[in-house]
């Protein structure tokens, strides 16, 4: 057990929130969200040894620019797990988001990794281990993790099939997103593959990963294609190619735009179990401003209609559109549209959650990572306070119970000390 030497501002602030939300929001959720918001620094000593390095294949999620992160001697771990410490935390898995200015640092003390907050050790730390299938070579000589890296503490084989988004070409990209900039900075991690990973390589990689007993599911994701029919054909081809090898050995998650209902049955028949037509933000005005490409080519009302129709195909609990939690509070001189008060932001998103849950849709969240090369990053917006996440998750749990819905399926088990969802704390809430 670590001994507390002195108190500091960030520790006092967290402990005041522990008291405020005692019995309502677990300490683990508050610490996790704080780390996700502020990012993590790492000492060079802590980065020695073997661990699973972060896969920069979709977004960076980092508060630091890529050139800062790439100056490190090593790529940082994909995820960390904190536990114990001065607050007696249950094991909590957190996505690594590199920030050299964060008050949180992973360092070494007496040869053990610890999480330091303002220089004070607050928790013990483990890095995600390299999955067993890492290092296996595909038929073209690439390592399998270059195509299907692991997330969710090794439980999900994650495939970014299309590594850019076409909305960027018309200035219609989502304002929180840095997918194209991420490809420019980190595309060399899969040198020679290009923006679209060959279907055969994906099928081979997922097949190998699925033989690892720790892998519980796989995810096919990637950027948007402006022609909706082409996008449906593109991603359907990946599911079909994988399932020709897997024959539904493990469940499949699909993350795309809201697809036309007439195409959804093809995905279900091909083997998709869990569908994520990510809505991003509920407020109609903010949707049009934050996701202009989606608004122009599909439209918010049509997006919602398609999401509701998807429940008829995939079933209750299997349709989980994502909200990027916090972007409704994005605000600056360059973007004076976000909610200024926590209660207003939570009320807006809760209205969306309730509407969707009343129709048997179970939304999910990722905590907003303010990437400097996203539109928001360049516009100088600020992230929401920690209280926003506590209030949002309390409301989510209340609505989930009211409508008698399960946790979003495909994300693994929920609960403090149990959840392996790395980029959000809502799955760490008490059931």
Automatic annotation (TrEMBL):
<dbReference type="InterPro" id="IPR058240">
    <property type="entry name" value="rSAM_sf"/>
</dbReference>
<keyword id="KW-0411">Iron-sulfur</keyword>
<protein>
    <submittedName>
        <fullName>Biotin synthase-like enzyme</fullName>
    </submittedName>
</protein>
<dbReference type="GO" id="GO:0051536">
    <property type="term" value="F:iron-sulfur cluster binding"/>
</dbReference>
<feature type="domain" description="Radical SAM core">
    <location>
        <begin position="173"/>
        <end position="313"/>
    </location>
</feature>
<keyword id="KW-0949">S-adenosyl-L-methionine</keyword>
<keyword id="KW-0408">Iron</keyword>
<dbReference type="InterPro" id="IPR007197">
    <property type="entry name" value="rSAM"/>
</dbReference>
<dbReference type="InterPro" id="IPR013785">
    <property type="entry name" value="Aldolase_TIM"/>
</dbReference>
<keyword id="KW-0479">Metal-binding</keyword>
<dbReference type="GO" id="GO:0046872">
    <property type="term" value="F:metal ion binding"/>
</dbReference>
<dbReference type="GO" id="GO:0003824">
    <property type="term" value="F:catalytic activity"/>
</dbReference>
<dbReference type="Pfam" id="PF04055">
    <property type="entry name" value="Radical_SAM"/>
</dbReference>
């Amino acid at each position: 057990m670590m001994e507390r030497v002195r108190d500091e501002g960030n520790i006092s602030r967290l402990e005041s929130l522990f008291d405020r939300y005692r019995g309502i929001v677990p300490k683990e959720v508050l610490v996790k969200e704080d780390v996700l918001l502020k990012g993590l620094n790492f000492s060079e000593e802590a980065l020695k040894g073997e661990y699973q390095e972060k896969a920069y294949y979709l977004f960076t999620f980092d508060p630091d620019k890529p050139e800062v992160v790439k100056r490190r001697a090593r790529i940082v771990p994909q995820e960390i797990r904190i536990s114990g410490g001065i607050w007696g935390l249950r094991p909590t898995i957190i996505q690594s988001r590199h920030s050299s200015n964060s008050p949180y640092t992973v360092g070494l003390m007496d040869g053990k990794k610890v999480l330091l907050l303002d220089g004070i050790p607050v928790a013990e730390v483990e890095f995600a281990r390299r999955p067993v299938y890492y290092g296996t070579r595909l038929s073209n000589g690439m390592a399998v993790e270059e195509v299907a890296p692991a997330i969710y503490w090794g439980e999900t084989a994650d495939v970014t099939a299309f590594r850019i988004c076409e909305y960027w070409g018309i200035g219609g990209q989502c304002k929180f997103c840095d997918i194209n900039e991420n490809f420019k900075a980190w595309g060399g991690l899969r040198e020679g593959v290009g923006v679209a990973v060959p279907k055969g390589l994906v099928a081979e990689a997922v097949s190998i990963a699925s033989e690892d007993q720790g892998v519980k599911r796989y995810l096919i994701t990637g950027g948007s294609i402006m022609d909706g029919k082409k996008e449906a054909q593109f991603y359907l081809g990946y599911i079909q190619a994988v399932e020709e090898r897997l024959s539904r050995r493990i469940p499949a998650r699909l993350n795309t735009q809201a697809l036309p209902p007439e195409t959804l049955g093809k995905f279900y028949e091909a083997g998709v179990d869990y569908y994520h037509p990510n809505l991003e933000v509920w407020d109609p005005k903010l949707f049009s401003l934050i996701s202009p490409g989606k608004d122009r080519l599909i439209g918010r009302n049509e997006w919602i209609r398609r999401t509701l129709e998807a429940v008829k195909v995939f079933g209750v609990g299997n349709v989980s559109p994502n909200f990027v939690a916090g972007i409704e509070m994005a605000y600056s001189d360059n973007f004076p549209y976000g909610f200024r008060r926590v209660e207003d932001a939570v009320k807006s998103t809760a209205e969306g959650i309730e509407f969707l849950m009343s129709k048997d849709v179970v939304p999910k969240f990722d905590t907003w990572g303010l990437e400097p090369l996203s539109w928001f990053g360049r516009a100088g917006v600020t992230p929401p306070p920690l209280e926003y996440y506590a209030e949002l998750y309390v409301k989510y749990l209340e609505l989930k119970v009211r409508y008698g819905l399960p946790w979003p399926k495909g994300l693994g088990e929920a609960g403090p000390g149990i959840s392996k969802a790395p980029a959000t704390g809502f799955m760490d809430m008490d059931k």
